[in-house]
Amino acid sequence: MNPLRTYVVFAALGFRRYSAYRLATAAGAFTNSVFGLLRAPITMAVIGAAGGELAGYGALEGATYAWLTQAVLTPVNVWTWNELALRIRSGDIAVDLARPVDLQMTYLAADLGRAAFQVLPRGLPPLLVGALVTGLALPTTVLPYVLGLISLALGVCVSFACRWLVNLAAFWLVELRGVLTLHMVAVGALSGLTVPVHWFPDWLARIASASPFPSMVQAPVDLLAGRVQGVEALGVIGVQVAWFLGVLLLGRVVLARGVRRLVVQGG
Amino acid sequence: MADLAPYRAVLSSRIRSQLAYRRSFALDVAGSAGVGLLEFLSVYVIFTNVTELGGLDFAGVALVFAFANLGFSLADIVVGHVDALPTYLRSGTLDAFLLRPLSVLGQLVTSDVQLRRLGRCAVGVAILAVALPQAGIDWGWGAALLVVAIPLVGAVIFAAVFVAAAAAQFWLVDGAEFTNAFVYGGSNAASYPTSVFTTPLRAAVTFVLPAAFTAYLPTLLLLGEPGPAWTPAWLGWFAPVAAVVAWVVALTGWKAGLRHYTGTGS
Are residues B194 and B206 in contact, defined by beta-carbon separation less than 8 angstroms? Predict the structure, then answer.
């Protein structure tokens, strides 16, 4: 089978695996919408307290930001992911490594398949609720949505590359929960998930911009909302590509080192 | 106290097992503290841009946040793991609980007490220690009593929400995330002055899901603020009543859920 087709199959499997649980998907979309109901008024209240405008966000743009973050957070997967770590701990990774396909690329393909399934059923409900409750300030031309979806796909890729890297710590540590939680905390704090990165004080903004985290949430949300457009939007996408390739390569190097010290028991 | 002995034995074994791997435990505690700090970071970022939110200044909002966080994390330590009920249901572990001559809820609660969540409690206590002296509180016995009582009553309310959510799992199973909207959404709503919400939403997080009773309303009493229309500060004195009502609802739901449960095997 040609290698590209293999990855398409893995992506399709990732898609099907998540589309199997309809009630769970509905439950998740409900929770995203409820969080939007809470986050949108908080964001609007902050903008109101700042005099009606804060770092380019009016009340409606602020609400739109809150709903969009709820819409993209599941496809991007900002929560903990430990599938790879569990396979390393149990030794099942040896089976994965024996397959004649690239380990990292198959996991990436499956993750993109998962995201492709989740983008509509997890993204549209909070946006619909948002449109009804607060209204949304969305662009009226096609280009921001095209760029936004490219940026969202890259956000998934950056998120995957980081989760992959963190999971590889399982080659060296037995219990990963603390490490995974700290990673989730860093994503939550610096990705623009709860407050826009544009509101950060200087010192925090500097830390955020030196990290891959804003590429996961703030970048796609900025492009989808049409806050960043044209050449500037291409610049944002360029930064995402750079973080993706950089962290992905680091993940390959670390995997190779981990595999070298891997000892699996059994015949 | 002989009938509590089995619980004591189970509980002490859980605690010993968590402390067995020191480095992992330390990382877990750090991760838990990190979650608390991360949530507070949002409040901090907000107050680098504004001077008040929902009628409270930074110290006031920090108090609301810290009380809500402390109450929630205390409840999370004691009963937080009941949200693993769907796993017990699917694997059939619950059947083992039903066979033992002990309360099912009691067994579920003592099956896994999470000490690592003390990290998040510590963050709440630290924020309180900094914010309390700066909030302009008129100190007296009443204020001191409130500072101690607010997180405890809050923990009791959040614990009831956890149990009510677990009860709903008997029907939902695969839809476990539905209840996250109430458990974690409630914690999120409780961490901010509910005066920022529109009246219907504020009524919902006060009278339907009693989140506002865990921190915002009693904090208004502490600060001597009047509070917004429809949910005035004096409601804060009724937080213990809200806690009792929440537990009545939670236990009724739990009993109904347990009756509804018919097992997973053949």
Answer: yes
This complex has an ipTM of 0.89
A20 at interface of B, judged by CB pairs closer than 8 A: no
Q: Do A26 and B175 touch (CB under 8 A)?
A: yes
Collapsing DSSP to helix, strand or coil, A54 comes out as strand
| Interface test mutation site (partner B, options A22, A25, A194, A213, max chain B beta carbons within 10 A) | A194
Q: Which residues pair with B57 in a beta bridge?
A: B52
Alpha helices in chain A (DSSP H): 3-19, 22-49, 59-76, 83-90, 93-98, 103-133, 143-167, 177-190, 202-209, 218-224, 230-260
Domain extents in chain A:
3-260
Q: Spell out which residues of chain B touch residue A49, defining contact as CB-CB under 8 Å.
A: 50-53
User: pLDDT by residue (tens digit) across A52-110?
Assistant: 999 999 999 999 999 999 999 999 998 889 999 999 988 889 888 888 889 999 999 99
Per the structure block, which two tokens stand in for B35? 């979650």
Q: Which two tokens mark A201?
A: 């004080």
**A250-to-A216, A243, A256 alpha-carbon distances in Å:** 18, 10, 10
Contact A30 B181 (CB under 8 A): yes
A179 close contact with B: CB closer than 8 A: yes
pLDDT of chain B, 266 residues: tens digit per residue: 457 888 888 888 888 887 777 877 888 888 889 888 888 999 999 999 999 999 999 999 999 999 999 999 999 998 888 888 888 888 888 888 888 888 888 888 887 778 888 899 999 999 999 999 999 888 999 899 999 999 999 999 999 999 999 999 888 877 778 888 899 999 999 999 999 998 899 999 999 999 999 999 999 999 988 888 888 889 999 999 999 999 999 999 999 998 888 776 54
Inter-chain CB proximity B172 and A27 less than 8 Å:
yes
**d(Cα B242, Cα B163) in Å, to the nearest integer?**
15
Q: How far is A1 from chain B (nearest CA, A)?
A: 36
A172 touches chain B (CB under 8 A): no
> Which residues of chain A have a CB within 8 Å of the CB of B116?
178
∠B137-B143-B149 over CA atoms, to 5°? 130
**CA angle in degrees (0–180, nearest 5) for A80-A86-A91:** 160
* Global pTM exceeds 0.80: yes
- Least CB–CB distance from B52: residue in A26, A49, A177: A49
Residue among B43, B112, B123, B180 with most chain A CBs within 10 A, to mutate = B180
Closest CA–CA distance from residue A64 to any residue of chain B (Å) = 16
* Length of chain A, in residues: 267
